[in-house]
């Protein structure tokens, strides 16, 4: 029997308030991997560092960015959301960019009577029904922008760098998720923890992964992403690695995409 395509896109927030744990790298590679599986994907940059946007070729062009969409949603001053959506030739993927203006937007979010629900209202717009997945690349904070992303998402993907301080971030993030989702059962909103920058030659990295599995069990993705120089090169050349047969981390990211797709029916409830 043919299953009907759900009208609502699956929204995945990629979040961890720790900086430099591979949120943006993961957003790009997962996004492109899903496109390779014929999914229609929108990447959303909610970090004023604009790393994701610049990776995808964004240059200031006077057209709306995520900042204008937030402002419009709070002020109920609707304009065309589609004008904020770019298509990146670089990665054959759609995205909404951010720029430095986003830094000032937190105060606007704070004026909304539902200050953590602005993204939920924004992404409920019919423009987004075209997409199978919306992937939100979060900034390294736990501020109102991230609370909005967590409230709007169906699932959160938490990249965890395999180092000693990895845990700190995860527990605080889950506490925030619990608060914004207003439930103690946060597990149903967790897509998984993805171990990143894993060095299988060090005992410390192996110990961290084991400890993570002890604490969070099945929520840790089967696949870990290795620490490889090719990822650093890719972020300089602005090329994803996913799907590249010659790339170890590209193959690993594709395995993560396969895990996500295998969970798709569950996500849709
Ligand atoms: N598997 C990996 N191996 C080696 N380097 C990596 C790997 N993953 C990411 N990096 C590098 O680590 C740095 C941080 O990655 P990235 O920008 O994706 O992290 P982030 O969590 O988005 O950072 P921020 O918190 O600043 O937004 C980048 O230089 C990236 O190329
Ligand atoms: Mg980032």
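-> sequence recovered:
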């Amino acid at each position: 029997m043919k299953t009907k395509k759900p009208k609502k896109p699956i929204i995945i927030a990629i979040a961890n308030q720790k900086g430099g744990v591979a949120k943006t790298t993961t957003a790009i590679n997962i996004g492109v991997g899903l496109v390779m599986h014929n999914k229609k994907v929108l990447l959303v940059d909610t970090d004023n560092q604009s790393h994701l946007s610049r990776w995808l070729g964004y240059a200031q062009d006077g057209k709306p960015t995520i900042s204008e969409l937030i402002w419009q949603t709070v002020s109920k001053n609707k304009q065309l959301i589609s004008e904020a959506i770019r298509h990146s030739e670089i990665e054959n993927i759609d995205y909404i960019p951010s720029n430095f203006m986003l830094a000032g937007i937190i105060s606007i979010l704070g004026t909304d009577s539902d200050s953590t629900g602005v993204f939920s209202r924004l992404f409920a717009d019919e423009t987004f029904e075209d997409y199978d997945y919306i992937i939100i690349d979060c900034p390294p904070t736990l501020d109102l922008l991230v609370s909005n992303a967590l409230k709007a998402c169906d699932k959160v993907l938490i990249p965890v760098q395999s180092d000693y301080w990895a845990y700190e971030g995860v527990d605080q993030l889950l506490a925030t998720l619990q608060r914004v989702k207003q439930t103690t059962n946060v597990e149903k909103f967790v897509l998984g923890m993805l171990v990143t920058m894993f060095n299988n030659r060090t005992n410390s990295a192996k110990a961290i992964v084991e400890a993570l599995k002890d604490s969070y069990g099945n929520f840790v993705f089967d696949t870990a992403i290795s620490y490889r120089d090719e990822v650093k090169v890719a972020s300089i050349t602005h090329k994803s690695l996913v799907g590249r047969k010659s790339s170890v981390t590209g193959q690993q990211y594709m395995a993560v995409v396969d895990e996500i797709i295998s969970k798709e029916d569950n996500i849709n409830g």
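The chain has one domain: 10-261.
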